[in-house]
């Protein structure tokens, strides 16, 4: 760490010394920029070397004399001169004589000269006479004037030669072939018909066996016409069924529309699957009820007997009530008698409690009965229509339900009256809350009855939607009644009644006010309402008693069915759940596809079937007639036609073997323009440019950029010293390696500056075409670091010898680095050293960023440059302390020559 710290101290000291000295600062800045100027001037000079060739003077003179061809004067030389007047590729100078042209080329006034002799057009058309003589163009060039100009002028002459060849074909051939056109035109106008007839005969002859097969098929088809007509009749019958198909399609679409509802309803199977344990438990409970039904029946009978006993007590009290009242004038007897009546009423309390419970239970069944009734009605209207029988059945069910509700209203009225009389007799309001609940329940039962009666009167006129609305309102009212029943606590009613009667008896026992209180009790009303409540309960119990045999049988049958088939039921539920989870989605998908077909595809298909069958029916007579005629032709005329075709084909083949009419006409009638264009350019060249670069200057940029970076490193090492100067007292503070490393950082900083200036200047000042400008800068910095490191280490270790080595590498790199010319056109020596020159990989790396990066190549060059920098840095830092003394001796020897500094 101390070594690094000392190195950076010396590095910072370097730059402080530079910036304290204005001359040093100016020189450093100049050394940063000068190498870039070297690159920029060369790149700009080579930007487009052929852009100014229009100023390159080339003398042209034509002595060509016109010649006659087919009665027309042809002067190809004049056409060439006219074209060159519009050609700006070279600086064409049109002189007046052959002598002027030759003198101008000799003197250097013109770089080259082109002369067309007087027989140029005549020789060019000599092929028409049978004595072919190729015309000659005289091309003179002065090669001593410039190294590149002759090549440019030669390119112009070659272009002129191609242009004259093109002009010859377009002029001479078009004139020659025009005569042939006139000869072959009339024949060609009928060639299509001639060729068509010939081809038809030959083709027919070649396919006679196939045609024979077709004739047999035509005869077979004609024989099958009765069968086809019969099938067509059946197809027409299918059309009559299309309305039924439409009807079934509508039902299919309706079923698909209801599929979400059906799926939702079918999902109950999953709930059943979850409740299988409960179903199995219910089976066990049902079996217990079936086995204990005798006990249930006995309990029912005992309940009825108990209720009748209670009723009998109440009736006895009612019978004795007139006597009690007669004795009431006797105060002492009245209290005792009243007390006895109250006590008897209290003894009948279990019967009264049971009666109230039965009344409420009967009303509590309203919700279940309503749901069953609604489900029955929904099932009846599910098909969107009601038969008279279904309407009658619905009305009958509604009427029975309404009558039942009326009876329940009466029972609730009697119960409320009983509780009111009892509360009045007790002289308190303990039962008022229960009375209000009973009255509210009675009101809700009335609401339900009104809705049932309203539906009864509109059964004949309601739609399905209106039915559903009525049923929902009825179910809401029924649920309200069930909620009222659940809100009443019968045990609380019994306790309250018992409390009221106890208070009543207590009141009678009390001497104070005994007579007055007893006289205020209205036993007649109390007993009357109590009798009605108990009687209603007895009616309900006897109703259930009559149903007990049927209930017993139903429970037994249910027990037998449920427990006897429990495994089948459970398996059925599981299978149903499996069908719901696995098969129902498939059914839903297929039903959706079918419904989609019915809605979208079937109408068009139906239309096509109808129209197609109509067309077939209309055309069938014509088809039948045509087949009959074709069969007659095949049977009677085809053998002779076949023989004639064979003879004609034989004659045509014989004629074609001797004369090709088509080739004769083709030669006589040529398209002059098309033919001449084909001879001029028989092949089109398609060029596919990979990694295109806009101009020659941009293409040369990688070479001159790398060259300027090496030159910059050599130039800086020639001016700047690699030795680090310290005072004697400071030399002991810093090691040789620290001094070497600090000066190396200074050199590398200069390299980074040079690389940054030249790469940014290329892009922003010159506008060089660079596809990857960011990578161009990064690659330039890497190359600058590598080059500067190599030059610094060579100079630091070997002094002037190191500078010489750097210059030798520079010289070898110019020819062996493959910068401007492919290395394959250089000598074998340069081809051999090319892979080992740092310059080669630097130029290649810069070319990658210029034209477009191919990373396998770029990665290899990056590693090479990076490794060169690291290896030279490590070797130089390690070796410097050991070789410094020898380097100074070598430098001293070179100084003794008084030539090298």
Automatic annotation (TrEMBL):
InterPro entries: ABC2_TM, Phage_infect_YhgE_C, Phage_infect_YhgE_N, T7SS_ABC-Transporter
Source taxon at top rank: Bacteria
Bilayer-crossing regions: 21-41, 703-726, 747-768, 774-798, 805-823, 862-883
Subcellular location: Membrane
Record-annotated ABC-2 type transporter transmembrane domain positions: 27-170, 658-876
Mode of membrane association: Multi-pass membrane protein
Keywords linked to the UniProt accession: Coiled coil, Membrane, Transmembrane, Transmembrane helix
Alphabetical list of Gene3D superfamilies matching this protein: 1.20.58.60, abc type-2 transporter like domain
GO cellular component terms attached to this protein's record: membrane
Keyword Transcription: no
Molecular function GO labels: ABC-type transporter activity
Residue stretches in coiled coil: 211-265, 527-561
UniProt keyword Transmembrane present: yes
PANTHER family: TRANSPORT PERMEASE PROTEIN, TRANSPORT PERMEASE YVFS-RELATED
Protein name from the UniProt record: YhgE/Pip domain-containing protein
Organism for this UniProt entry: Enterococcus phoeniculicola ATCC BAA-412
